[in-house]
Amino acid sequence: MPDDLLSGYRQSIDNIDAALIHMLAERFKVTQAVGRHKAEHGLPAADPGREERQIARLRRLAEEAQLDPEFSEKFLRFIIDEVIRHHQKLCE
């Protein structure tokens, strides 16, 4: 006997996951453009001040959304590290 409630929850999760992937793809398109700009103008791949401001901002947003700020910081740090890696490749 299928559990319609569980199926509904899972469908919602699948939809949210799909949206997250599409949003991450768009974010990385923009950060790739930033990386090209930095490479063309001799700017450093990383901007620690910007990174810290972004982490603080997203921690505040996480708290407002009742999401664990530690989790949000880990998630953002993972993304930032990947973006920096891409920027460093562009500078090579």
UniProtKB/TrEMBL annotation:
Gene3D superfamilies (alphabetical): Chorismate mutase
SMART domains: CM_2
EC number in record: 5.4.99.5
InterPro entries for the chain: Chorismate_II_sf, Chorismate_mutase-related, CM_bact, CM_dom_sf, CM_II_prokaryot
PROSITE patterns associated with the record: CHORISMATE_MUT_2
GO MF annotation, one: chorismate mutase activity
Keywords linked to the UniProt accession: Isomerase
Isomerase as UniProt keyword: yes
Domain of life of the native organism: Bacteria
Domain Chorismate mutase span(s) in chain numbering: 1-91
Listed GO biological process terms: chorismate metabolic process; salicylic acid biosynthetic process
PANTHER family in the cross-refs: CHORISMATE MUTASE
Entry protein name: chorismate mutase
Protein source organism: Sphingomonas aerolata
Lineage: Bacteria, Pseudomonadati, Pseudomonadota, Alphaproteobacteria, Sphingomonadales
